[in-house]
Design goal:
Layout lengths: L2 E6 L3 H11 L13 E7 L14 E4 L17 E4 L8 H18 L7 E7 L10 E2 L10 H16 L3 E6 L1 E3 L5 H8 L3 E2 L7 E2 L1 E3 H13 L6 E4 L5 E2 H12 L5 E2 L10 E2 L2 H5 L9 H9 L3
Parallel strand pairs: 1-2, 1-4, 2-3, 4-5, 5-7, 6-15, 7-12, 8-11, 9-14
Antiparallel strand pairs: 10-13
Helix pairs in contact: 1-5, 2-3, 4-6, 6-8
């Protein structure tokens, strides 16, 4: 029996995950059978563009408005929650990550639901002075976004214990080229090399693959960090990318505020069988600069 998966907040990340989940598996390739039936929920589905292979079945709904959730599909077995808040305010974050999951769970028939994968963020961690962090590291968010995400994680684990949380590093990839654009314009700044300010990245395709992997993994842990294999000092990452772009080296500036310096360890995700396609962000970014 095919899995019935609902992706809530099905934007770029969710759509990429949907295409992986609906792709024929090797054992099914001869028959062309899809491995899952996938719905994508968002306020404004992209129904005005031609459908792409592997697109989910679109649902137009607002997770902050329970009245729009009255007709969700029955028999959902897995739920991927990868919502993006409608703004960078405490109210928008609470609506997306506290009200939204509660409304979705109230609207679903939970008798068939086996697992939730909740996409969170490294913003739940604080300042670690460049030390390595993993799933055992205590949270200590520096901003309201991290505090609300911590609350959302705890709430979901209480409401539905079979919840898997994926705390993602900063995403980059097609359509996520803000850093490259700032480097081209000479607007990016780097902190001094000592002490290093560490950057953690994950390619959007690897993040989508991690979501699909955790939805289907036989016996997942409750928490994973999603990052590539290679945390990098910001000055090294920015200068390498500026060189690849043929742009001027970025000038010195203050470190990013409210982020903290830390190195995310992805060992638990890798030990679960996940292998990133882009283990070093410099290689992933170079493909964006000069596609092959």
């Amino acid at each position: 029996m095919a899995q019935r998966i609902l992706i809530v907040g099905c934007g770029d990340l969710g759509t990429r995950a949907a295409r992986l989940l609906t792709a024929p598996q090797p054992s099914e390739a001869s028959e062309g059978a899809a491995s899952a039936e996938v719905w994508g929920l968002r306020r404004h589905p992209p129904i005005d563009r031609p459908a792409q292979p592997g697109d989910p079945i679109w649902i137009a709904a607002d997770i902050g408005d329970p009245a729009t959730l009255a007709a969700l599909p029955s028999g959902i077995t897995q739920l991927l929650f990868c919502q993006t808040p409608g703004g960078r305010t405490p109210e928008a974050y609470a609506r997306a990550f506290l009200d939204g999951p509660r409304n979705i769970l109230n609207a679903l028939d939970r008798t068939a639901l086996e697992r939730i994968v909740f996409v969170s963020s490294s913003a739940v961690y604080g300042e670690h002075a460049g030390a390595w962090i993993d799933e055992t590291t205590p949270t200590g968010p520096l901003g309201f976004n991290g505090r609300i995400l911590c609350e959302a994680e705890a709430s979901l684990w209480t409401q539905f214990p079979a919840t898997v949380v994926l705390r993602l590093a900063g995403l980059y990839g097609p359509g996520r080229t803000q850093l490259l654009d700032r480097l081209r314009r000479g607007e990016a700044h780097v902190p001094p090399a000592s002490p290093p300010q560490w950057a953690n990245r994950m390619h959007i395709d690897d993040a989508a693959a991690a979501c699909a992997h955790l939805l289907t993994l036989a016996a997942p842990d409750a928490l994973y960090l999603g990052a590539d294999d290679t945390p990098l000092p910001l000055d090294i990452l920015y200068r390498d990318l500026a060189h690849a772009l043929g742009a001027a080296e970025p000038a010195l500036g203050d470190p990013p505020k409210g982020v903290g310096s830390k190195r995310m360890r992805n060992a638990r995700l890798r030990q679960s069988g996940f292998v990133p396609r882009w283990p070093d962000a410099r290689e992933g970014y170079r493909v964006l600069i000069a596609p092959t």
